[in-house]
## 1
Amino acid sequence: MTTRTIEFREALREAMSEEMREDLRVFLIGEEVAQYNGAYKVSRGMLDEFGPKRVIDTPISESGFAGMSIGAAMMGLRPIVEFMSWSFSLVAADPILNNAPKMLYMSGGQFGCPIVFRGNDGAGGQLGSTHSWCVESMFANVPGLKMAIPFTPYDAKGLLKTAIRDDDPVFFLESERLLSIEGEVPEESYTVPFGQALIRRPGTDCTIVSFGRPLYFCLEAAKTLAQEGIECEVIDGRTIKPLDIDTIVASVRKTNYCVVVDQSWSFASVGSEIASQVHQHCFDDLDNHVMRVHNDDVPAPYAYNLEQEMLPNARKICEAVRAVTYNA
Amino acid sequence: MSIEITMPRLSDTMETGTIIKWEIAEGDVVSAGDVIADVETDKATMELQVFDDGTVARILVPEGQTTDVGTIIAILAEDDEDSTKVGTESGGASSAPESQTKATSSDTTSAPPASELEAPVPTREAPAPRSNGKMKVSPVARHLADEHSVDLRHVEGTGPGGRIIKRDILKAIDAGAETQAAVPPSSITPIEPVSVATPVKSRTAAMPLVPASMGSMLQEQIIPVSNIRQIIAKRLIESKTTVPHYQVTCAFDMDPLLEMRQQLNEQLVAQQVKLSVNDFLVKCCAVAMYEHPFFNASWEGEQIRIHGEINIGIAISLPPEKGGGLVVGVIRHADQKSLRAISSETRYLAEKARGKGLSLEEMSGSTFTISNLGMFGVEHFTAIINPPNSAILAVGAAIQKPVVKQGELVVGREMSATLSSDHRVIDGAMAAQYLASLRQYIENPASLLV
Amino acid sequence: MTTSSKPDITPQSASLKAKGPSTDLLKQWLRDMLLIREFEVRTMQAYQNKKIGGFCHVYIGQEAVAVGCTAALEPNDPVVTAYRDHGHALARGMDPKYGMAEMFGRIGGCAKGKGGSMHFFDKEHHMYGGHGIVGAQTPLGAGLAFATKYEDEIINGGVSNRVTLSFLGDGALNQGSFHEAQNLAGVLDLPVIFVCENNGYSMGTAISRGTTMGHDITSKAAGYGFDSAVIEGMDVIEVYEGMKAVVDKCRETSRPAFVDMRTYRFKGHSMSDPRKYRTKEEEQQYAQDDPIDKLANELMNNRGLSRDEYDVMAKEVKKQIREATKWAEASPIPDIEELYRDVYVEKFGPYSGTSLPAMLED
C-alpha cells in the first residue's frame, strides 16, 4: 500500500471532496467555507471544484443554517455543516440537539437525519472561555446522535468519510491544534469504522483511555512513565458514540488500572461515563478506582500558563497514573 | 472492652446447642440484631441474633459442634479495640472456651491455643489493614488472593489507608513460593494434618498446598463449549459425514517459487511487505480455477453451482487465549488481486481474526479453501472440506529433500499438498488435472506476475 | 387577498364571491373542514376521557387555513408546521385514524405513538411535522425548500419547481430561529413561504403585548425583502385564492414570501387553558365568523347545496371520525421493543433499525 503524508486539514478536505464526488446529495455549508476557503483552510479549493451551490457560505447564523440543513437532511440530502468552532454551536443547540437526533424517533422512523456537524472543539491557543468549549460531554448525553473525535490525519479522513456515509446525525469534533499535524494516509480510498478503538501504545501496567488531542498528552506521559518503569497502554477511543468499551475492558482486565483523560470538564462527563462503565465491567479486575484527568473545573482562562495548567496535560496524567498504580 | 457471645438458651428445656452454621467470619462487622448463626436446640433450629455492635474477633466453636448453654462461642471487639488482639490475652476470655468446648476429632477449625495465635503477630511490620474493623482490599487483590489461597489477614496492605492491593498479594505469593521452594521435597509429606488444618498461622500455609513443581500435573477440567467451537463441530461433522471426500496428494518442486519469493521480498522490504508461500498458493489456486471451474463450485442437491467469482478461503487458527478454534478468512476475487494485495489482506484477516474477530462478511462467501500447516513443519496432512466448497487444499512445509534434477541427485525443496474433493462434483481425474495445473503455476511462478 | 396591511384583526362579514372555485371543489373543502372540526371535537372528548396524554392543541376555528393553503399546493410540495398540527396533517390527506392512534399512544399512530399530538408526520403526504418548539420548524422549512431546489437543480439537473409552506404561529414571530430562517431564505433565494397563522395570541399573550409592530407583521418580512400578503384566514376561498397567487409566484421566482394569515383560535391554547386573557364578547364575535358556517352558507345560498346534502355530509364525517377513533382504540399499544427502535437508522447499541409506521406499510 503506497502512502502519502498530508496534513490533518487536508485529510478532512479529502474526505469531504471524495464523498462529494461520489454522492451528489452531499454538500458543505457553513461560515466562510466557500470564498474565504474556510476559516481554518479546511475547505480550501472546494468552491472551485464544486461551485457555490454545493459549497455554501452562510451568514453568521448557526441556529438558522443548522436548522436549515436538518430540514434538507429530512428530505434526504446529506449536509456537512461546518461550525467554525463547536463553541458557536451553542446558539444552535435547539436544532442540533432537539431536531437532528430525534427526528427519526419522533416521526416513527419516517424522517431520518443523515447530517454531519463538524468543526473545532476544545481549547485552541489562548482563546478564552467562550471559544474554548469542549462539547463532547454535554452533547454525548443526547440519544440519537453519534460522535467521533479523530486523532490522526488517517483517522480524520477515514472517520469523516464514515460519518458522511452514516444515515444518522454525526457530531464530528476536530481540534484546531491538530489541523497542521501531518500523517500518512493510503493512496487508496478507505474508511475507518465507528466503534473501533485503537491501541496507540501497548503496555502492561496501566490503561489510559482518551480521545482526540489529549492523546498527545497521554503519549507524552506514557513516554515519561516508561522511563520510570510504568508501561502504559494508551487507547484511542476514536468514537465516543458508539463507544468501544470492549477494547477498554480487555485492556483494563490486563493492567488492573485505568486512567481516563478527557478534555471536557469532569462533572457528568465522557470521562465519568467511561469510568463508570469500567467499574461496571472490570470491578473484580481493578486494583484501584479509575482515575480521571480533565480540564480543571474552571472556565478556560486566557493567560498562557493558566490555560496550560487547566488542560489535562502530561504532568497531570503522569500524576494520575502514578497515583492509580500506587507509585505516587 | 470485648463482648462475649455465649450459647443462649433458646428453649425452656435447652441445655446444649449445636452451631449448625456460622453466618459470620472473623473480621466481620456486626450490628445488634444481625443473625450470626443457626443453632440447633433440642426442639428446633433457631437463628442466633447478636445484641451488640462490634467486630467479630474470634469464633471459638466450629460449625457442627455442640456446647453447653452459657459457653462462650464467639467474641466481639468493640469499635475502639483491635479485633486481632481481642481474645489473645492470657487469662482472658480465651481460656473459657478451651475448658468448656467439647472438642471432637474432626475439629480442624477450632480456635488454636493463644500461644499459637500470638506467634505471627509480632513478625508483622504493621497490623493487617482495618478500617472501622473492615479490611480494605482492592477487588483484583481479593480475586488474586482467592485464586492463590492467600489469607488476606496476613497480608500487609500498602495502599491508601492500609488497603491490600495487587502488589501486596503478588509479594505474598512470591514469598510463599520462595518459602515453598526452600522446603526440601521430602519434608512435604510429613506435614502434620493439624498444621495443614490451621493454615492461617504460618506464612507457608497461606500458600497453595500443591507444590509449584506439581502444578504441571494434568487435572480434569470441564471446559464449556464456546459458540465458535460448536459451529466448528456442527459444520465439520456435517461435512465429514455427508460429503464423499477423497484425497489426492502431489509434491511440488518449490525451488523456483522460493527463489522468486526471496527476490520479491528483497525488493519489497522497504515497503514492509513480506510475501509468504501461502500468498503464492492463494494466487495459484485462484488462477487455476479458470481451467477447472468445478473446483470453484458447490453441490446443491439438484444442481451444481459454478461460482462467478473466485474467493479463496484461508483457514486461520485462533490462539488458545481466544478459546482456540479456527475460522476461515476470505480473500475475495483472489484471481484478480496482486500477490501484494493478497499478502496484505491475508495479514489483515489473520490479525483481525486473532484480535477483534472477523466480521461475518469477512468469513463468508469462500468458493475454495486452503489450509496450511507448513509453518509447523508438517509434511503432509488431509483437510475436511469447508462446505459449500467442493474442495480444500491441505498444504505442508517446503522441505529439503534429495531430488533428481536434470539427471542429477541434488538437494531440492519439495512441498506436498493434498487436495480433498467432493466426489459428487469432482472426479479423481479432475483432481489430478487441477493439481497438474497448480504445478504449472507453482513451478513456473513468473506466470503469476503477468 | 389584499396586499395592504390591516390595522387589526376584525371578523369579516360573511360575503363570499360567487365566482372562483367550482362547486365540487368547494364541497370537498367543506367536507375537509368538517372532518378537521369533528376530529378536533373528538380529540377534546378523548383528552377529557384521559385517552390522550400530554399537551394537546386543537385547530378549531382555523380549519380554513390548512384546507385553503393545501388546496393551493401541488401534492409533492413539502409542508411543515408547529405543534397545532392536526389540521395540516388531515388537510394534507392523512387518514384521521392514524392521527387519533398517534394521540392514543398506539402502534398504529402516524409516528407509532412516539410523537403524540404535537408531532404528526406523514412522509407519503409530504407532511414534515409537527414540531414542538416554537419557531424551530421555520429553519427546517427553509431547509426543505433548500433541498427541493438542490434536488431539482443539482441532482436532477432541472429547475426548481417545488414550493415549501412553513407554517408558524404569531408567537414564533419573536423567535431568533424564525429571523435566521427568513434571512437565509432571502440570501439563498429559497422557494419557501412562511405562513404566519396569526390568531392574535401566543398562548395567553395578545400580539400587541408581545410583538412590536404587531398590527402590521408584514413589516418584518419587508425587512428581509420578501413579498408579503395579508389574507383573511376565516374564509377558505380567500385563503385559497390569496395563497394560490403567492404560491404561484414563489414557484416561478424561487423567492421566499411571507403571509399574515388572519385567523382565530376558537378554543384555548391547549386543553388546560381557561382563556382568561380574552373576553367572552370577543370570542362570541369570532364565533359569528366560523369558516365552516361561512362556506356552508355560500354553498346553500349560491351553489345549490341542500340542507339534506349538508346533513348527509356531516353525518358521513361523524361516522368516519367515529370509526377512526374505534380503529385507534383497537390499535395495540407499542411493543416495548419499539422503545429502542428508530433511535438510529442502523443498529447501534441496544437500538435496532427502523420499521415504518403501519400507514406507510400498506
Note: The domain at 3-186 of chain A is CATH 3.40.50.970 (Rossmann fold).
## 2
Amino acid sequence: MDQFAVKVFVRLRSSVLDPAGEATKSASIKLGAEGIKSLRIGKMIEVKIEGNGENEVREKIDLLCDRLFANTVIEDYEYSLEKL
Amino acid sequence: MDNFTVGVVVFPGSNCDRDVSWALEGCLDIRTKYLWHESSDLSDVDAIVLPGGFSYGDYLRCGAIARFSPLINALDEFVKSGKRVLGICNGFQILTESGFLPGALVTNKNLNFICDDVELDIVSSKGGWFNNVDEKQTIKLPIAHGEGRYHCDSDTLKKLVDNELIALRYKNNPNGSSFDIAGITNEKGNVLGLMPHPERACDETIGGTDGLFTLKSLILK
C-alpha cells in the first residue's frame, strides 16, 4: 500500500457570486492594499489516504470530490497529490 | 385524521422539528412521528417533513453531510412511490444537496442571517402545496436563514419556468436568489422545498396562518 497526501481545492464557480470574497476584498482595500482586482474565497481539504498506486487513489479522490467535497452545481474542484 | 402519519426527520442539529410537529398536531390534528436520521424504515409514515435547523452543524455545506444519512438514502424509494416530502429551510438545502430538487442554496448576498416576515407570490400550485384559487395570490411567511440564496444555471432555470416548478417567489428578494425563487417542486409535484417556514405561521396569535395550507396539504394523496 502506498500513502498519499492530497490537497483538494474547492472553489465557487466563477458564475456564482461570492459575497464573503467581496467583503474581504473591501476590507483588503481598507487595509491599504492597492491593485486588488478580484478576491474569491475557497476551501482547501487535506487528506491522507492509502491505496494501491496513484491511479487507484485518484479514483477515490475523484469520487469524494464529486459526491461530497464539492457541490458541482456551484463549485469546481482540483487537487494535487504527493506520494509519502 | 384517520391514521395518516407525517414523519418529522430529526438530524443532529435540527431545531424546527418540534415546531413542525406542534403545528401539525396542535393546529391541524395531524399525527406525527419523529424519525431519527439513522432510521431507514419509512414504512409507517405517509408523508415526510425535513425540518429547518443546522443538520450536522452545516459542516462543509448546508445539507451536505445529511445527504449521506440512512434516512435520506431511504427517501428515494419513498419519493418514487409518490408520497409527499416537504423540505423547509435546511430541509430544502438537504433536498438540493441530495439531488431531489435542482440547484443549490448559497450564502445570502448581503452576508446577513436574515430573520424577517416576507411576502411571497404563489407562482404554481403544482402538487397542491399552495392555495392559488385566486389568479395571483400572495402569502406572508417568516424566513430565518444565512444560506438561502437559490442558485441554478440558466438551463435549469428555463426548465423550472417551462415546467411550472417554481412554487414561490419573493416579492422583495431578501437574499439575492436567482429569479426571486423561494421554493420549488420536483416534476411530479410530490416534493416541495422552500426557504420560508410555514410551520411558524400556523396560529393567528403568533403571526399569521398563511402556512397552514401547505402543512395541511401533506395529507393529499
Note: The first strand of chain B starts at residue 5 and ends at 10.
## 3
Amino acid sequence: MIEIKDLHKSYKMGSNSLHVLKGINFNVEEGELVAIMGSSGSGKSTLLNILGMLDGADSGEYYLDGVPIKDLSEKKAAQYRNKFLGFVFQSFNLINYKSALENVALPLYYQKVGRRERQDKALNYLDRVGLKEWATHLPSELSGGQKQRVAIARAMAAEPKVLLADEPTGALDSKTSYEVMDLIQKINDDGNTILVVTHEKDIAHMCKRIVHLRDGVIVEDTKIEQVRAQEYV
Amino acid sequence: MFNRDRWKEILEVLTSNWFRTVLTAFGVFWGIFILIVLLAAGKGLENGINADFGDIATNTMFMWTRRTTKPYQGLPKDRSFEFQREDVRAIRDNVPNLRFISPRNQLGGFSSGGNNVVRGLNSGAYNVYGDYPEIINQDPMTVTSGRFINYNDINEKRKIAIIGQGVKNDLYEKGEEVLGTYIKIQGVNFLVVGTYKKNSSDGGEEAQKEIFVPFTAFSQAFNRGEDVGWMAITAKDGSSISILKEKIINVMKKKHKVHPEDNRAIGYFDLYEQYNRVESLFSGIRWIAIIVGTFVLISGIIGVSNIMLIVVKERTKEIGIRRALGESPWSIKKQILMESIFLTIISGMTGIIFGALIIYGINALLESVGPVDMFLSPSVSVGVVASALTALVISGLLAGFIPANSAIRVRPIEALRNE
C-alpha cells in the first residue's frame, strides 16, 4: 500500500539546515496497523506529513497504492488527500462552528457527494463511533474523547486507503486513549490500513507493528503481538 | 456558485462576528450612500436651474442701447442713440444663421413705476411690450385663451393686447369674460384678444403681469417712431449666438456711428453663455460627486479587504484542516472571494436603498412645502445605480483578491501548525 525508498527531508532554519529524515526505506501492506515511535525530533511527524502529502520530500520515492507521489500541484495534492488519506490529529482539528455531523460530512462535500447521501453517510459513520446522538452538537459541546471519535469518523467518511493518525491519544487521558485505540483497532479489523504516530509505549503495543525512528533513520522495525485495547476499557 | 452549503458557510462566517461585519459593511454602505446622495443632489440642482431657465430659447442674446463713451466721427461722447426698425434688416443682411430677431419697445418696468393700465375702476402697473409675433418662440408662454399677436396685427397696427394671468386677476372680476373687452394703456384703448400664462418660474408673479401688444401699434400709440428699445436675437440651431454676437454688435456700431472700441455703448446679455456656464458648473458638480463618492467607496473597500485579511488569518488553521481533508485551493479562494463580494454587495445595496429612501424623502418634503429655488426633484438614473452595482461586484472581487491569495499561499502543514 505504501512504498518509500530513500526518503530525505531537511528544513532550513535561517542559515543552517536541519536534516530531519536521512534516508527512510519503509513499506506498509494493506490492512496493517503500524505504530511509528520515536522521541520528539526523531522525524516521525515529518514522515507522517510527507506520507500525508502535507509536505514534500527533498528526495526519494513514495508510492501510495502504486501511484507515484511526487511534485504534486496543490490541486492534485488536495485531490489525492481527499481520495487516499484520512487524517486524525492530536488536537482533533474539528471545525468549531460546524456540528459533528457537518464535520464528518466535510470530506464527502469535497468529493462532491450529493447533500442527502452525504448526510446519510456521515450519520452512519458517526453511528459507528457511537456518537449518533451527538450529531447536531458543536465540537465545543463534546468531550476530548468524543471529539477524537468525531475526527476518526471524519477521517473514515471518505473511505480512504490509508488512515494517518498523528498522536491521536496525545491530548487524552489513558482511559479515553484506550477507547480511541479500541476504535482504531476495530477499524483496522475491518481491513483498513492505519499508521499511528505516537511516543507512548502502551499505545504502540496496541498496533501490529512498531517502527522506531531516531534522528531521522529507522532503527527498529518489528512485528508484535497486538494488545487489544478492549481489555482496558 | 449557487450551492447551498457554500452560502451557508458564507453566512456562518459573516455572522460569527456581527459587530465586525457590520462595521466593515458600513464603510462600503457609506461610500455608495454618499455617491448616490451627492449625484441626486447635483441632479436636483440641475433640474432646479433648468426649470428656472424654462423653455426660453437658450441660444439667445438680448441687446439694448446705452450712452457712447467715446467720441467718434465728430460726434461727442455721452451721446444717446436708439436702435431703429431698419436695424433688424441690417442685421439680417449682414449676419447669417440667425433664426429670430425680435425688436421690442417697453412701457413700465424699468422706465416708470406708476400705474399705467386702467380698466373701469381697476388699475395697475404692468410691463407693456410692443412685440413681433416671433417673441413667443424666444420668451415662451402658453396662450390660455384667444390668440397671440400675428403679422396682420403688425401690418395694420391693430391696437390689441394679450394679457397675463396676473393682469387678468387684477383687472377683472372672477369669471368675467376677458376677450373682447378693452383696457386703457396710458390713455389708449386696446382690445384684449388673448390671455397667456408663463410656465417658467423665472420672475415668478411678475412674469404673469405683462401685456403684449403689436410692435407697430405700440410705436404709433406711444410715439416711438422708428425707435427700437431692445432686441432679442436667437441663432439657428448648430451655430452659437455667443460667436455671432460680436458680428451683430459690430454691425450696430457701424450703423450708429459708435467708436469700434466703445464696448459700453451697446448693452447685451448672452443667455447662451450663461446657460453654458451653468451647464459646465453642473458637469463639474457631477464629477465632484463621482470623485468624492468613489474615494469614500474605495476607503470602504480597503476596509473590507483589511477585514478579510484578518478573517483569513484567524481561519488559517481551519483552512489547513480543510486542505488536509482535500479541499482544493481554488475552492478556498472562491470561498473568500464570495464572502468579500457578498459583503460588499449587501452593504452596497443597503447604501443604495438608503440613498433612494433619502431621495424619496426629500422629494416628498419638496412636494409638501412647495417649490424651492434652484432645487427640483433630485434623482439618480437607473444607469447610475447599475454602474454602481457593477462597481460593487468588481470592488468586492478586488477586496477579496489579496486575502484569498494569502489564504492559499500558506501551505497546509503550516496552517495546521498555526495555533
Note: Chain A is about 35% helix and 30% strand.
